[in-house]
Amino acid sequence: MTGEPSRPAARRRGRPARAEAAEGPGARERILAAARTEFAERGYDKTSVRGIAKAAGVDAALVHHYFGTKEQVFAAAIELSFTPALTMPDAIAGGAEAGAGERMARFVFGIWENPVSRPPLLAIMRSALTNDTAATVLRGLVERRLLQRVAGELHVPDPEFRAQLAASHLIGIAMLRYVVKMEPMASADLEEIIAMVAPTLQRYLTQP
Amino acid sequence: MTGEPSRPAARRRGRPARAEAAEGPGARERILAAARTEFAERGYDKTSVRGIAKAAGVDAALVHHYFGTKEQVFAAAIELSFTPALTMPDAIAGGAEAGAGERMARFVFGIWENPVSRPPLLAIMRSALTNDTAATVLRGLVERRLLQRVAGELHVPDPEFRAQLAASHLIGIAMLRYVVKMEPMASADLEEIIAMVAPTLQRYLTQP
């Protein structure tokens, strides 16, 4: 599977360029924005290319033209939603290894606590948990764009396994705090959470 | 909300006892089994009382009679699916506090690795992540039947917060390993995972 919009493949479908022009400027961006909203609100299963096209005010054929299949539209949409997370490797690196665990925790919770970046992340989790195609797309994106780069910053055995151990903890906390809203986690002081979790992440990321 | 099947409430709907007899013996159990399967395969949103009744070979009215609303059928179904997890407090207690982290990890992974108990757990996670009513039902069940009892075994500040920190880690690993099937976590040796995670859980569960 590919996480790329795969426009070359789409272009081969050969839709005359004047047709794109007819849709007006920024059609591709409108489609992508509509796709994010549709997937976020309905999840992968209930979202259709037709619905995305309608929300973007374009013809469904143009969605296929730019992105290809529904799976490829989803890939492009979550790649965009994932952009904030893609700088995590830099956050973790930060020169000295000491504090990498806390930096990772603050970075991830910074994204989750942000009302703009949380909904698309929630949508990705929901879709990946309920649809195998969506899970495959997410897996590919994370492996290709995030996991390998994070692992590249680590100097421990099985760096990818270590990175996933750390990530799994943050994912689980996010599920309890932001999705299921289980108390006391849902309303716990973020600093308390970070104080407890940072040493764990630090151990996974740096302890030989 | 209530996590109980609330049969008293349902009984008040007053369906003649002879009608139950007409459905044959074990109708309630058949309905519950059908509900677990339907919710597991379709998730909360796509499951209907009508579909559960059809799968159980009974009249939809009997489902309402025994359990009440769809939400209450779900509550009864996940309470049953949750039964294996309800002995966790005993697993964690086990006398000496030393090793509580490893016992919790082995207990939870024991349930996840079991092909019989995994599907209903997956179904619960999927439903809770995609439907607020399902999340509320799960929250109530966990808080009432599990969290308080686990916390009761701990001798640390904020025992419920500590219990959720430990649980969140295991939930996150389960998501990566069993749901998204992210490598290397998906095929990592379980003993390796436990060796890394147990000390973390031990710290959360016992460190003052």
TrEMBL record, chains A, B:
Q: Does the keyword DNA-binding apply?
A: yes
Disordered as annotated region, ranges: 1-26
Q: What Pfam family is a match for this entry?
A: TetR_C_16
Question: Keywords of this protein's UniProt record, alphabetized?
Answer: DNA-binding
**Family annotation (PROSITE patterns):** HTH_TETR_2
- DNA-binding as a keyword? yes
Q: Outline the extent of the HTH tetR-type domain.
A: 25-85
The entry's DNA-binding region feature spans: 48-67
Give any GO molecular function from the UniProt entry.
DNA-binding transcription factor activity
Please list the residue ranges that the record marks as compositionally biased, kind Basic and acidic residues.
17-26
Q: Which Gene3D superfamilies match?
A: Homeodomain-like (1.10.10.60), Tetracycline Repressor, domain 2 (1.10.357.10)
Q: What is this protein called?
A: TetR family transcriptional regulator
